Amino acid sequence: MRTQTLGQSRGLVFVFSVVGGLLLAFILVPLLRMYATQTPATLMQIAAIEDVQSAIWLSLEAAFLTALLAGALGVPLAYLLARTTFPGKGVVEAVVDLPLAIPHTVVGIALLFVFGRTGIIGGPVNAVTGFQFWGTWGGIVIAMLFVSVTYTVNAARVGFESVDARLERVARTLGAGPWSVFGRVTLPLAWRGIVTGLMLTYARSISEFGAVIILTYYPMTAPVKIYDLFLQSGLDESSAMAVLFLTASLAVFIILRHLSYGRVTPGGRRM
C-alpha cells in the first residue's frame, strides 16, 4: 500500500519517521541481541528440559483461558459503559483502569487476602470443594485476569461506542428485541474492538510475573521459570528459555491475530 502525503508535510513525515524509527530500534535491538547470543545447540538443550516445556505451555494455556474470562466478564461491562449513564459511572471507569496503576507485586499480595489459604474466597472455596487458588492454575488465571482485564473492557467499550446507535434503534422499530439487537447488530459491528481487547489481554497475561509469583509460585509459568533459571544458572540458560518463550508467544499471537482480528472487517464480516 502506497503512503500518500501532502508536499508541505514531507518534512514533518521525515522527522516523525526518524523519531519513530528510534523507538522501534529501542524495542528491537535488545530482543535481536538476545536472539543473536543463542546457538541452536543451546536452544535445543533448554527446550528438552521438561520443566521448561511445562512452564511455556502453562503460560500459553492460562493466558488463553484468561482472555476467555476477560471476554465473558468484561464485554458486558464495556457495553454498559458505552451505552448507559448512571450515578457513579466515573468511579466505575476509574476502578476499571486501576489495575494499570498498581504495582503487580502489590496485586499479588492483595489477591492473597481474597484467594489465599485464609482469604475471604479462597478459604471457604477450599473448605467446601477442596479447590485452592494458591499453587494451582486457578491462582495463575486470577492473577493474570486482574492485571489484564482492563484492556478488554476499554477496547470493547471503544468498539461499542463506534457503533451508530441509530442502527440499534432501527432494529428495535423493526421488532427485534434487545438481546436480538445486541447479538445481531451491536456485537458484529463492535467485534473488531472486542477482539483487539482480547488480544491485548492475552498478550499482557502471558507476560505476567509479579502477581503470579506472589499468589502462585508453583506451578511455574514461563516468566517465573525464566527468573528461576536466572537465579540458579545465570544469564545463559535464562536467556535461552526467554528466546524460546518469546518465539512461542509470538507464533501463537500471530496465528490468533490472523484467525480472528486480521480477518474481520469493520462491519464484522470475515474476509
What does this molecule look like?
It is a single chain. Residues 264-269 have low confidence and may be disordered. The protein is mainly α. The longest helix is centred in the N-terminal third of the chain and has 34 residues, at 50-83. It has two domains: 1-36; 43-263, MetI-like (MetI-like fold). It has helices spanning 10-36, 40-47, 50-83, 89-97, 104-115, 122-129, 137-161, 165-173, 178-206, 210-215, 222-233, 235-259. It has twelve helices and no strands. Helices cover 75% and strands 0% of the residues.
Shape from CA axes?
A: globular
**What is the assembly state of the chains in this entry?**
single chain
Distance between the termini: 18 Å
Structural class: mainly alpha
Q: Taking all residues together, what is the mean pLDDT?
A: 88
- Biggest sheet architecture: none
- Helix content range of the residues, please? over 70%
Q: What is the CATH H-level superfamily of the largest domain?
A: MetI-like
Which consecutive residue ranges, at least 5 long each, have pLDDT under 50? 264-269
User: What percentage of the residues does DSSP assign to strands (E)?
Assistant: under 5%
* Distinct helical segment count: 12
CATH architecture grouping of the largest domain = Orthogonal Bundle
How many distinct folded domains? 2
Give the number of DSSP strands. Answer: 0
Instruction: Look at the structure and give the CATH class of the largest domain.
Output: Mainly Alpha
CATH topology of the largest domain: MetI-like fold
- How much is the radius of gyration in Å? 22 Å
In sequence order, what are the helices and strands, one letter per element? Answer: HHHHHHHHHHHH
